[in-house]
Design goal:
By secondary structure, this protein is an all-alpha fold. It contains 5 helices and no strands. The relative contact order is 0.07.
């Protein structure tokens, strides 16, 4: 199982590199890889649990047979004390058969126990590697988000400082200056004197001169 997990881990890394090369979203890909690895761990945990259950069953059977062997030994001794050799013989025969069973069960249990210990160690190693990769995934995701932000900022700054943007500002500035010039021209037109205004002013000045001359004559100051 552990070798399979190792192959999966290698495949994850290779697919991640491929996804980056294809410009796929590494954040989403990393999340998917972690989900796949977590599922693999759950499957291995199920297998280890079955191994542990089998090991416990074999140990219980072995212990039961050993208990029975001890019982038959005592029964044989009891039969001899009672002077019943036939019963003692049958107890010893049954004891001998169970000793053979105990030998086979002991070997099976020892193998199952060794396999269970190895599987538990490998599972612990898998979980450790998973946590390490999870930490690395978090780091990679943070780096990816930071890179995206920097790229967006750089593109925005490049757009602001581009010739097209500058030309756009220059066009707007020219329009504003044109509006200002039009406003000044309209004010000049509004305050300019027409020919009628000049004649009216001339007639007004003549009236003042006539009135001034009449006043001087009246006062004898001509």
């Amino acid at each position: 199982m552990f070798k399979f997990f190792k192959r999966v881990s290698t495949l994850v890394r290779s697919e991640l590199n491929a996804s980056l090369d294809k410009a796929e979203d590494p954040v989403k890909m990393l999340d998917q890889f972690m989900r796949d690895m977590a599922e693999d761990i759950r499957e291995v945990e199920t297998g280890v649990a079955k191994q542990m259950a089998n090991e416990k069953m074999l140990k219980r059977k072995k212990d039961d047979v050993l208990t029975l062997i001890e019982k038959r030994q005592k029964q044989a001794e009891q039969a001899i004390e009672a002077g019943n050799d036939d019963m003692a013989r049958r107890a010893l025969e049954d004891k001998h058969e169970h000793e053979q069973q105990a030998e086979a069960l002991t070997a099976s249990w020892e193998q199952a126990n060794a396999d269970t210990e190895i599987s538990r160690d490998k599972l612990a190693e898998m979980k450790k590697e998973y946590q390490e990769m999870k930490l690395k995934k978090d780091t990679l995701q943070a780096r990816a988000e930071s890179a995206k932000t920097r790229t967006k900022m750089n593109r925005t700054m490049s757009a602001i400082g581009s010739d097209e943007s500058k030309q756009g500002f220059e066009r707007m500035e020219e329009k504003v200056m044109q509006y200002e010039a039009e406003a000044e021209t309209s004010e000049d037109l509004r305050t300019s004197r027409t020919l009628e205004d000049e004649f009216e002013e001339l007639n007004s000045d003549k009236k003042i001169d006539d009135e001034l001359a009449a006043l001087k004559r009246k006062m004898g100051r001509e």
